[in-house]
């Protein structure tokens, strides 16, 4: 039986601002990427998200990003590799503390937004991310864009990884994600999203925004928790995967 992980970026509410439908989505997925207070989330939301994830036996991952609440961590920031290393360590420490008090563990790390995209393209940024994760806990997985510099860095520096694909994002011809600033970057049609992930899992291919067939490795599928159609996407992916005999299973 084919197996694939289903992850979602969660814990992104902040203070009085609620984002996403975490409590409904969490029981349906297998891995949760929890915001660590820089791009989104706060100490209360982190604590609550870890507690709910444990209740549903969901694998918890850290979702560290740039310290950019107003831009939701999606704006590129001119940083050195050392600055990247330090911000990863800081955020892993914060989330790991909440995991400890709930007697659960951290399984993986998935960089957020602009940090993820920069690491996917820049080998020095990728190496800083991977080195920070490995120095913090060399048993953690990195979750990174399939075929990107993040995955190459894991291979160079000997860190476990899972190649990630996206249900709700379009791809460029080179395998990078289409910028959110471009038309067509976000997939909003449920069946289109399901068709895309089915093709990635069953055929290891995705069709780019320009119609090019790209080879891709799908260990884990992401649905963005802040997306308007996130819950529908998750439910329909689970339904159609079941009918295709594809098992949704957590990273291990």
Number of DSSP strand runs? 10
Strand-pairing-aware structural class: alpha/beta
- How much beta, percentage-wise? 15-25%
Please outline the major beta sheet. Answer: 7 strands, parallel, barrel
Rg on CA atoms, Å: 17 Å
Compact overview of the structure:
Helix 3 (81-101) packs parallel to helix 5 (123-136) and helix 7 packs across helix 8 (230-244). The protein is globular, with a radius of gyration of 17 Å.
Description:
This is 5-oxoprolinase subunit A. Belongs to the LamB/PxpA family. It comes from Mammaliicoccus lentus. Forms a complex composed of PxpA, PxpB and PxpC. The structure is a single chain. The chain is α/β, with parallel strands linked by helices. The protein has eight helices and ten strands. The protein has helices at residues 22-25, 43-55, 81-101, 113-121, 123-136, 149-157, 190-203, 230-244, and strands spanning 2-10, 31-35, 59-63, 106-109, 141-145, 161-166, 205-207, 213-215, 220-224, 246-248. Helix 3 packs parallel to helix 5 and helix 4 crosses helix 5 (123-136). The longest helix has 21 residues, at 81-101. It is globular, with a radius of gyration of 17 Å.
């Amino acid at each position: 039986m084919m197996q694939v992980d289903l992850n979602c970026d969660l814990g992104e509410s902040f203070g009085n601002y609620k984002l996403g439908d975490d409590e409904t989505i969490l029981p349906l997925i297998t891995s949760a990427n929890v915001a660590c207070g820089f791009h989104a989330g706060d100490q209360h939301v982190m604590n609550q998200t870890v507690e709910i994830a444990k209740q549903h036996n969901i694998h918890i991952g850290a979702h560290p990003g740039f310290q950019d609440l107003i831009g939701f961590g999606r704006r590129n920031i001119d940083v050195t590799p050392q600055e990247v290393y330090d911000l990863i360590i800081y955020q892993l420490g914060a989330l790991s503390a909440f995991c400890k008090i709930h007697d659960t563990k951290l399984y993986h790390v998935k960089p957020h937004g602009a940090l993820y995209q920069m690491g996917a393209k820049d080998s020095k940024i990728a190496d800083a991310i991977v080195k920070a994760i490995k120095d913090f806990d060399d048993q953690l997985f990195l979750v990174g864009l399939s075929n990107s510099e993040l995955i190459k860095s894991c291979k160079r520096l000997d860190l476990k990884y899972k190649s990630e694909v996206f249900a709700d994002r379009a791809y460029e011809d080179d395998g990078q994600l289409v910028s959110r600033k471009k038309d067509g970057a976000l997939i909003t049609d449920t069946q289109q999203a399901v068709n895309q992930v089915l093709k990635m899992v069953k055929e290891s291919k995705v069709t780019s925004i320009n119609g090019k067939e790209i080879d891709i490795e799908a260990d884990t599928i992401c649905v963005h928790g802040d997306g308007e159609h996130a819950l529908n996407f998750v439910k329909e992916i689970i339904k159609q995967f079941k009918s295709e005999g594809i098992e949704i299973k957590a990273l291990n």
